[in-house]
Design brief:
Layout (H helix, E strand, L loop, with lengths): L13 E6 L8 E9 L11 E4 L4 E7 L4
Antiparallel strand pairs: 1-2, 1-4, 2-3, 3-4
């Protein structure tokens, strides 16, 4: 699942994000959402979040809970 809809993302969720410095090469960083920084219900490039370790980026994928 992609991370373009705010309703799909919540604190404690495991996600892959793209950091600003990695936008050109597409490197993903995995972590747990601490809080949501985008207030809009939808964003075409992904909802911006802060991970528990303090890194900020846009959600590329929501890690499937299996």
């Amino acid at each position: 699942m992609d991370g373009k809809n705010r309703k799909d993302i919540y604190p404690g969720l495991e996600v892959d994000i793209i950091l600003k410095k990695d936008q050109r090469n597409g490197t993903l960083t995995r972590g747990i959402v601490s809080n949501l920084l985008t207030s809009a219900p939808y964003h075409s490039r992904g909802i911006k979040v802060r991970l528990e370790d303090g890194q900020v980026g846009r959600v590329a994928n929501i890690v499937d809970e299996e």
